[in-house]
Amino acid sequence: MIQRPRGTRDFGPEEMEVRRFFEGMMRQEAVLHGFREISTPIFEHTELFTLKSGPGVIEEIYSFKDKGDREICLRPELTASVIRFFVNDLTTLPRPLKMFYFGQCFRYERPQAGRYREFFQFGAEIIGSPTPETDAEAIGLAAAILERTGLKDYRIRIGHIGILRELLAKAGVPGDNALPILQKLDKKSYPEAEELMAQAGMGVIDIAKIIETTKITGPVSVLDSYDGQARDYIRQVCDVLVAMGFSNISVDLGVVRGLAYYTGMVFEVDAPKLGAEKQICGGGSYSLSELFGGEKVFSTGFAIGFDRTLLALQTEGVEFPQPKLTAYVVPVGDTAREKAFQIASELRRAGISADVDIMRRNIGKNLKSADSAKARYALIIGDKELENCSVTLRDLSSGEQQSIAFADLVQKLKD
Protein backbone atom coordinates (compact mmCIF):
# COMPACT_ATOMS: atom_id res chain seq x y z
CA MET A 1 0.00 0.00 0.00
CA ILE A 2 1.42 3.40 -1.00
CA GLN A 3 1.17 5.92 1.84
CA ARG A 4 0.87 9.68 1.41
CA PRO A 5 4.13 11.63 1.86
CA ARG A 6 5.03 12.69 5.41
CA GLY A 7 3.82 16.17 6.28
CA THR A 8 0.84 16.05 3.89
CA ARG A 9 -2.83 15.26 4.52
CA ASP A 10 -5.93 13.89 2.84
CA PHE A 11 -9.20 15.71 3.56
CA GLY A 12 -12.51 13.86 3.63
CA PRO A 13 -15.87 15.40 2.66
CA GLU A 14 -16.70 16.66 6.18
CA GLU A 15 -13.26 18.25 6.60
CA MET A 16 -13.53 19.90 3.20
CA GLU A 17 -16.93 21.34 4.12
CA VAL A 18 -15.34 22.98 7.16
CA ARG A 19 -12.34 24.24 5.20
CA ARG A 20 -14.41 25.66 2.33
CA PHE A 21 -16.77 27.33 4.79
CA PHE A 22 -14.02 29.28 6.58
CA GLU A 23 -12.06 29.85 3.38
CA GLY A 24 -15.20 31.43 1.93
CA MET A 25 -15.54 33.66 4.98
CA MET A 26 -12.00 34.93 4.54
CA ARG A 27 -12.57 35.68 0.86
CA GLN A 28 -15.79 37.56 1.63
CA GLU A 29 -14.10 39.74 4.24
CA ALA A 30 -11.24 40.61 1.90
CA VAL A 31 -13.70 41.67 -0.79
CA LEU A 32 -15.52 43.86 1.75
CA HIS A 33 -12.19 45.65 2.34
CA GLY A 34 -11.73 46.40 -1.35
CA PHE A 35 -9.25 43.60 -2.11
CA ARG A 36 -9.44 41.50 -5.29
CA GLU A 37 -8.33 37.88 -5.68
CA ILE A 38 -5.33 36.75 -7.71
CA SER A 39 -3.60 33.40 -8.22
CA THR A 40 0.02 32.50 -9.03
CA PRO A 41 1.76 29.24 -10.06
CA ILE A 42 2.37 26.58 -7.46
CA PHE A 43 5.98 26.28 -8.70
CA GLU A 44 8.39 29.05 -9.65
CA HIS A 45 12.02 29.54 -10.61
CA THR A 46 14.07 28.83 -7.49
CA GLU A 47 15.89 32.14 -7.88
CA LEU A 48 12.69 33.99 -7.03
CA PHE A 49 13.01 32.83 -3.42
CA THR A 50 16.78 32.51 -3.03
CA LEU A 51 17.25 36.19 -3.93
CA LYS A 52 15.77 37.59 -0.74
CA SER A 53 13.60 35.22 1.26
CA GLY A 54 16.37 34.48 3.75
CA PRO A 55 18.36 31.49 4.98
CA GLY A 56 15.47 30.01 6.98
CA VAL A 57 13.34 29.51 3.88
CA ILE A 58 16.16 28.56 1.52
CA GLU A 59 17.13 25.58 3.69
CA GLU A 60 13.55 24.27 3.54
CA ILE A 61 12.78 24.72 -0.17
CA TYR A 62 11.57 21.78 -2.24
CA SER A 63 13.74 22.42 -5.32
CA PHE A 64 14.54 20.34 -8.40
CA LYS A 65 15.60 20.60 -12.03
CA ASP A 66 12.90 20.22 -14.66
CA LYS A 67 13.33 18.47 -18.02
CA GLY A 68 14.75 21.67 -19.49
CA ASP A 69 17.47 21.66 -16.79
CA ARG A 70 15.92 24.74 -15.13
CA GLU A 71 16.07 25.22 -11.35
CA ILE A 72 12.45 25.03 -10.18
CA CYS A 73 10.92 24.89 -6.70
CA LEU A 74 7.54 24.49 -5.06
CA ARG A 75 6.67 27.87 -3.57
CA PRO A 76 7.57 28.13 0.15
CA GLU A 77 5.49 31.33 0.52
CA LEU A 78 3.39 33.55 -1.73
CA THR A 79 4.54 37.14 -1.34
CA ALA A 80 7.52 36.80 -3.70
CA SER A 81 5.23 35.24 -6.33
CA VAL A 82 2.75 38.09 -6.01
CA ILE A 83 5.44 40.75 -6.45
CA ARG A 84 6.91 38.84 -9.41
CA PHE A 85 3.41 38.89 -10.93
CA PHE A 86 3.15 42.62 -10.21
CA VAL A 87 6.48 43.37 -11.92
CA ASN A 88 5.59 41.16 -14.90
CA ASP A 89 2.04 42.34 -15.58
CA LEU A 90 0.41 44.70 -13.08
CA THR A 91 2.59 47.82 -12.85
CA THR A 92 0.20 49.95 -14.92
CA LEU A 93 -2.80 49.33 -12.65
CA PRO A 94 -3.94 52.25 -10.44
CA ARG A 95 -2.70 52.29 -6.85
CA PRO A 96 -3.14 51.34 -4.16
CA LEU A 97 -3.26 47.83 -5.58
CA LYS A 98 -5.02 45.59 -3.04
CA MET A 99 -4.78 41.85 -3.73
CA PHE A 100 -5.56 38.66 -1.83
CA TYR A 101 -4.91 34.97 -2.48
CA PHE A 102 -5.32 31.49 -1.05
CA GLY A 103 -3.15 28.50 -1.83
CA GLN A 104 -0.72 25.76 -0.89
CA CYS A 105 2.89 26.33 0.11
CA PHE A 106 5.63 23.76 0.71
CA ARG A 107 8.51 23.65 3.17
CA TYR A 108 10.63 20.72 4.19
CA GLU A 109 10.46 20.97 7.99
CA ARG A 110 9.59 18.73 10.92
CA PRO A 111 5.82 18.11 10.98
CA GLN A 112 4.02 18.86 14.26
CA ALA A 113 0.63 20.05 15.48
CA GLY A 114 -0.60 22.70 13.07
CA ARG A 115 2.64 22.59 11.01
CA TYR A 116 2.96 20.56 7.82
CA ARG A 117 5.22 20.29 4.78
CA GLU A 118 2.28 21.11 2.56
CA PHE A 119 0.28 23.90 4.18
CA PHE A 120 -2.27 26.51 3.18
CA GLN A 121 -2.05 30.29 3.42
CA PHE A 122 -4.60 33.04 3.05
CA GLY A 123 -2.81 36.30 2.42
CA ALA A 124 -3.08 39.84 1.12
CA GLU A 125 -0.73 42.50 -0.23
CA ILE A 126 -1.10 46.25 -0.71
CA ILE A 127 1.14 48.05 -3.17
CA GLY A 128 0.90 51.78 -2.61
CA SER A 129 2.67 54.44 -0.58
CA PRO A 130 4.59 54.21 2.72
CA THR A 131 1.94 55.56 5.08
CA PRO A 132 0.83 54.31 8.52
CA GLU A 133 -2.67 54.02 7.06
CA THR A 134 -1.47 51.46 4.49
CA ASP A 135 0.11 49.27 7.15
CA ALA A 136 -2.94 49.66 9.41
CA GLU A 137 -5.24 48.62 6.55
CA ALA A 138 -3.27 45.37 6.12
CA ILE A 139 -3.28 44.57 9.84
CA GLY A 140 -6.94 45.56 10.06
CA LEU A 141 -7.91 43.14 7.30
CA ALA A 142 -6.06 40.29 9.02
CA ALA A 143 -7.82 41.03 12.32
CA ALA A 144 -11.23 41.42 10.64
CA ILE A 145 -10.81 38.06 8.90
CA LEU A 146 -10.01 36.31 12.17
CA GLU A 147 -12.99 37.93 13.88
CA ARG A 148 -15.23 36.99 10.94
CA THR A 149 -14.36 33.31 11.46
CA GLY A 150 -15.50 33.57 15.09
CA LEU A 151 -12.08 33.55 16.75
CA LYS A 152 -12.28 35.41 20.07
CA ASP A 153 -8.89 35.09 21.76
CA TYR A 154 -6.14 36.56 19.59
CA ARG A 155 -3.40 39.14 20.14
CA ILE A 156 -1.75 41.52 17.65
CA ARG A 157 1.93 42.34 18.29
CA ILE A 158 3.43 45.19 16.24
CA GLY A 159 7.10 46.04 15.79
CA HIS A 160 9.46 47.64 13.29
CA ILE A 161 12.30 45.64 11.74
CA GLY A 162 13.99 48.88 10.73
CA ILE A 163 14.88 49.50 14.38
CA LEU A 164 17.03 46.38 14.69
CA ARG A 165 18.48 46.77 11.18
CA GLU A 166 19.53 50.34 12.05
CA LEU A 167 21.13 49.29 15.35
CA LEU A 168 23.03 46.46 13.64
CA ALA A 169 24.20 48.77 10.82
CA LYS A 170 25.50 51.34 13.32
CA ALA A 171 27.37 48.53 15.07
CA GLY A 172 29.07 47.51 11.80
CA VAL A 173 26.72 44.79 10.51
CA PRO A 174 24.78 46.34 7.60
CA GLY A 175 22.31 45.00 5.05
CA ASP A 176 22.17 41.29 4.31
CA ASN A 177 25.12 40.63 6.66
CA ALA A 178 22.60 41.04 9.47
CA LEU A 179 20.27 38.29 8.21
CA PRO A 180 21.74 35.36 10.22
CA ILE A 181 21.57 37.48 13.38
CA LEU A 182 17.98 38.57 12.69
CA GLN A 183 17.02 34.96 12.09
CA LYS A 184 18.29 33.97 15.55
CA LEU A 185 16.58 36.97 17.14
CA ASP A 186 13.34 35.96 15.40
CA LYS A 187 13.52 32.56 17.09
CA LYS A 188 14.55 34.16 20.44
CA SER A 189 17.80 32.16 20.30
CA TYR A 190 19.67 34.83 22.23
CA PRO A 191 22.91 32.91 23.01
CA GLU A 192 23.36 32.05 19.32
CA ALA A 193 22.50 35.62 18.29
CA GLU A 194 25.04 37.02 20.77
CA GLU A 195 27.70 34.65 19.43
CA LEU A 196 27.04 35.75 15.82
CA MET A 197 27.15 39.42 16.82
CA ALA A 198 30.45 38.90 18.64
CA GLN A 199 31.89 37.10 15.59
CA ALA A 200 30.84 40.10 13.48
CA GLY A 201 33.00 42.32 15.67
CA MET A 202 30.23 43.99 17.68
CA GLY A 203 31.03 45.28 21.14
CA VAL A 204 29.40 44.11 24.37
CA ILE A 205 27.41 47.35 24.78
CA ASP A 206 25.95 47.18 21.26
CA ILE A 207 25.04 43.51 21.69
CA ALA A 208 23.33 44.22 25.00
CA LYS A 209 21.40 47.15 23.49
CA ILE A 210 20.03 45.01 20.66
CA ILE A 211 18.99 42.19 23.00
CA GLU A 212 17.36 44.75 25.32
CA THR A 213 15.48 46.35 22.40
CA THR A 214 13.96 43.01 21.37
CA LYS A 215 12.51 42.71 24.88
CA ILE A 216 10.57 46.00 24.70
CA THR A 217 6.96 44.77 24.79
CA GLY A 218 3.66 45.98 26.14
CA PRO A 219 1.10 48.72 25.47
CA VAL A 220 1.90 51.56 23.07
CA SER A 221 3.21 53.59 26.01
CA VAL A 222 6.34 51.35 26.16
CA LEU A 223 7.59 53.29 23.14
CA ASP A 224 8.28 56.16 25.54
CA SER A 225 11.46 54.30 26.50
CA TYR A 226 12.62 54.19 22.89
CA ASP A 227 13.86 57.26 21.07
CA GLY A 228 13.96 56.64 17.32
CA GLN A 229 12.36 57.52 14.01
CA ALA A 230 10.13 54.43 13.98
CA ARG A 231 8.47 55.29 17.30
CA ASP A 232 6.00 57.83 15.89
CA TYR A 233 5.27 55.63 12.89
CA ILE A 234 4.26 52.65 15.05
CA ARG A 235 2.13 54.93 17.21
CA GLN A 236 0.26 56.21 14.15
CA VAL A 237 -0.36 52.66 12.93
CA CYS A 238 -1.78 51.74 16.34
CA ASP A 239 -3.95 54.89 16.43
CA VAL A 240 -5.56 53.97 13.11
CA LEU A 241 -6.19 50.39 14.31
CA VAL A 242 -7.86 51.67 17.48
CA ALA A 243 -10.04 53.94 15.31
CA MET A 244 -10.99 50.81 13.33
CA GLY A 245 -12.18 49.16 16.54
CA PHE A 246 -9.27 46.86 17.36
CA SER A 247 -8.09 47.12 20.96
CA ASN A 248 -6.10 43.89 21.45
CA ILE A 249 -2.89 45.54 20.22
CA SER A 250 0.54 45.61 21.81
CA VAL A 251 4.00 46.79 20.80
CA ASP A 252 6.73 44.17 20.52
CA LEU A 253 10.06 45.35 19.15
CA GLY A 254 11.22 41.73 19.23
CA VAL A 255 8.98 40.87 16.26
CA VAL A 256 11.55 40.18 13.55
CA ARG A 257 9.81 37.80 11.10
CA GLY A 258 11.71 34.97 9.46
CA LEU A 259 11.72 36.36 5.91
CA ALA A 260 14.60 38.61 4.89
CA TYR A 261 12.70 41.06 2.70
CA TYR A 262 10.92 42.95 5.51
CA THR A 263 12.13 46.53 5.86
CA GLY A 264 9.67 48.42 8.08
CA MET A 265 6.61 47.64 10.18
CA VAL A 266 6.24 43.98 11.09
CA PHE A 267 3.48 42.25 13.03
CA GLU A 268 2.34 38.86 14.27
CA VAL A 269 -0.98 37.55 15.53
CA ASP A 270 -1.10 34.92 18.25
CA ALA A 271 -3.87 32.60 19.41
CA PRO A 272 -2.79 31.96 23.04
CA LYS A 273 -4.90 28.81 23.40
CA LEU A 274 -2.59 27.02 20.93
CA GLY A 275 0.28 27.07 23.44
CA ALA A 276 3.87 27.16 22.17
CA GLU A 277 2.90 27.10 18.47
CA LYS A 278 0.47 30.00 18.88
CA GLN A 279 1.32 32.23 15.90
CA ILE A 280 -1.43 32.14 13.28
CA CYS A 281 -0.61 35.22 11.18
CA GLY A 282 2.35 37.41 10.34
CA GLY A 283 3.37 40.13 7.95
CA GLY A 284 4.76 43.60 7.48
CA SER A 285 6.12 46.09 4.96
CA TYR A 286 8.85 45.07 2.55
CA SER A 287 10.81 45.88 -0.59
CA LEU A 288 11.05 43.23 -3.29
CA SER A 289 9.99 44.56 -6.70
CA GLU A 290 13.37 46.13 -7.54
CA LEU A 291 15.04 42.72 -7.07
CA PHE A 292 12.77 41.28 -9.76
CA GLY A 293 13.51 43.99 -12.33
CA GLY A 294 10.81 46.48 -11.41
CA GLU A 295 10.69 49.93 -9.85
CA LYS A 296 11.04 50.23 -6.09
CA VAL A 297 7.57 50.45 -4.55
CA PHE A 298 6.23 50.32 -1.02
CA SER A 299 4.46 47.07 -0.25
CA THR A 300 2.87 45.62 2.85
CA GLY A 301 0.95 42.45 3.52
CA PHE A 302 0.39 39.36 5.61
CA ALA A 303 -0.25 35.63 5.48
CA ILE A 304 -2.67 33.76 7.73
CA GLY A 305 -1.76 30.16 8.49
CA PHE A 306 -5.05 28.57 7.49
CA ASP A 307 -4.41 25.24 9.21
CA ARG A 308 -3.39 26.79 12.52
CA THR A 309 -6.36 29.14 12.40
CA LEU A 310 -8.71 26.16 12.03
CA LEU A 311 -6.92 24.53 14.97
CA ALA A 312 -7.43 27.69 17.05
CA LEU A 313 -11.12 27.78 16.12
CA GLN A 314 -11.46 24.12 17.09
CA THR A 315 -9.74 24.82 20.42
CA GLU A 316 -12.26 27.60 21.12
CA GLY A 317 -15.16 25.32 20.18
CA VAL A 318 -16.31 27.42 17.24
CA GLU A 319 -18.95 25.57 15.23
CA PHE A 320 -20.06 25.94 11.64
CA PRO A 321 -23.46 25.20 10.08
CA GLN A 322 -23.58 21.63 8.82
CA PRO A 323 -24.69 21.58 5.17
CA LYS A 324 -27.77 19.39 4.62
CA LEU A 325 -29.10 17.65 1.57
CA THR A 326 -32.67 18.82 0.94
CA ALA A 327 -34.03 15.78 -0.86
CA TYR A 328 -33.12 12.15 -1.39
CA VAL A 329 -35.19 10.61 -4.18
CA VAL A 330 -36.16 6.97 -3.61
CA PRO A 331 -37.55 5.00 -6.59
CA VAL A 332 -39.59 1.94 -5.64
CA GLY A 333 -39.44 -0.58 -8.46
CA ASP A 334 -38.01 -0.41 -11.98
CA THR A 335 -40.85 1.64 -13.47
CA ALA A 336 -40.19 4.59 -11.15
CA ARG A 337 -36.45 4.81 -11.78
CA GLU A 338 -36.47 7.16 -14.78
CA LYS A 339 -39.03 9.45 -13.09
CA ALA A 340 -36.80 9.58 -10.00
CA PHE A 341 -33.90 10.86 -12.09
CA GLN A 342 -36.16 13.36 -13.86
CA ILE A 343 -37.35 14.77 -10.51
CA ALA A 344 -33.82 14.89 -9.05
CA SER A 345 -32.64 16.78 -12.12
CA GLU A 346 -35.53 19.29 -11.94
CA LEU A 347 -34.78 19.96 -8.27
CA ARG A 348 -31.08 20.52 -8.97
CA ARG A 349 -31.86 22.93 -11.80
CA ALA A 350 -34.07 24.86 -9.38
CA GLY A 351 -31.17 25.20 -6.95
CA ILE A 352 -32.42 22.53 -4.53
CA SER A 353 -29.83 19.98 -3.40
CA ALA A 354 -30.93 16.48 -4.29
CA ASP A 355 -29.51 12.98 -4.50
CA VAL A 356 -31.02 9.85 -6.01
CA ASP A 357 -30.50 6.11 -5.64
CA ILE A 358 -27.99 4.71 -8.12
CA MET A 359 -27.37 1.40 -6.32
CA ARG A 360 -30.82 -0.13 -6.96
CA ARG A 361 -31.37 -0.67 -3.25
CA ASN A 362 -34.72 -1.59 -1.67
CA ILE A 363 -36.78 1.11 0.04
CA GLY A 364 -35.53 0.29 3.55
CA LYS A 365 -31.86 0.58 2.63
CA ASN A 366 -32.58 3.72 0.61
CA LEU A 367 -34.19 5.41 3.60
CA LYS A 368 -31.12 4.53 5.67
CA SER A 369 -28.93 6.04 2.94
CA ALA A 370 -31.05 9.19 2.98
CA ASP A 371 -30.63 9.45 6.74
CA SER A 372 -26.84 8.91 6.60
CA ALA A 373 -26.64 11.59 3.87
CA LYS A 374 -28.32 13.97 6.37
CA ALA A 375 -31.15 14.62 3.95
CA ARG A 376 -34.10 16.62 5.22
CA TYR A 377 -36.67 14.80 3.11
CA ALA A 378 -37.04 11.48 1.33
CA LEU A 379 -39.08 11.64 -1.87
CA ILE A 380 -40.61 8.23 -2.45
CA ILE A 381 -41.87 7.33 -5.93
CA GLY A 382 -43.60 4.02 -6.64
CA ASP A 383 -46.38 2.75 -8.89
CA LYS A 384 -49.06 4.49 -6.79
CA GLU A 385 -47.24 7.83 -6.95
CA LEU A 386 -46.72 7.51 -10.71
CA GLU A 387 -50.41 6.84 -11.18
CA ASN A 388 -51.32 9.96 -9.13
CA CYS A 389 -48.54 12.16 -10.63
CA SER A 390 -47.20 12.77 -7.13
CA VAL A 391 -44.44 11.86 -4.66
CA THR A 392 -44.63 10.85 -1.04
CA LEU A 393 -42.68 13.47 0.91
CA ARG A 394 -41.29 12.07 4.16
CA ASP A 395 -39.77 14.41 6.78
CA LEU A 396 -36.80 12.36 8.01
CA SER A 397 -36.64 14.10 11.38
CA SER A 398 -40.33 13.79 12.36
CA GLY A 399 -41.36 10.82 10.20
CA GLU A 400 -44.42 12.71 8.92
CA GLN A 401 -45.51 12.03 5.35
CA GLN A 402 -47.65 13.83 2.78
CA SER A 403 -48.44 13.49 -0.88
CA ILE A 404 -47.20 16.30 -3.15
CA ALA A 405 -48.06 16.68 -6.82
CA PHE A 406 -45.12 16.68 -9.25
CA ALA A 407 -46.06 20.20 -10.38
CA ASP A 408 -45.99 21.57 -6.80
CA LEU A 409 -42.82 19.86 -5.59
CA VAL A 410 -40.22 22.52 -6.41
CA GLN A 411 -42.22 25.33 -4.79
CA LYS A 412 -43.02 23.18 -1.74
CA LEU A 413 -39.34 22.43 -1.11
CA LYS A 414 -38.37 26.07 -1.68
CA ASP A 415 -41.00 27.17 0.84
Protein architecture, described:
With 415 residues, this protein is an alpha+beta fold. Helix 1 (13-32) runs antiparallel to helix 5 and helix 5 (132-149) crosses helix 10 (229-243). The strands form three sheets. Strands 1-5-6-12-11-10-7-9-8 form a nine-stranded mixed β-sheet. Strands 14-13-15-16-17 form a five-stranded mixed β-sheet, with helices on both faces. A hairpin with a 5-residue loop joins strand 3 (63-65) and strand 4 (71-74). Helix content is 38%, strand content 24%. It is built from 15 helices and 17 strands. The chain has helices spanning 13-32, 47-50, 55-58, 79-90, 132-149, 161-170, 179-186, 190-199, 204-214, 229-243, 306-315, 337-349, 363-372, 383-388, 409-414, and strands spanning 36-37, 43-45, 63-65, 71-74, 97-106, 118-128, 155-160, 217-218, 249-252, 262-270, 279-286, 298-305, 325-331, 354-356, 375-381, 390-395, 401-405. The protein is elongated and about 95 Å long. The chain folds into two domains: 13-315, Bira Bifunctional Protein, Domain 2 (BirA Bifunctional Protein, domain 2, 2-Layer Sandwich); 325-414, 3-Layer(aba) Sandwich (Rossmann fold).
CATH architecture of the largest domain, please? 2-Layer Sandwich
Biggest sheet: strands, sense, closure? 9 strands, mixed
Number of helices: 15
* Form type: elongated
Structural class: alpha+beta
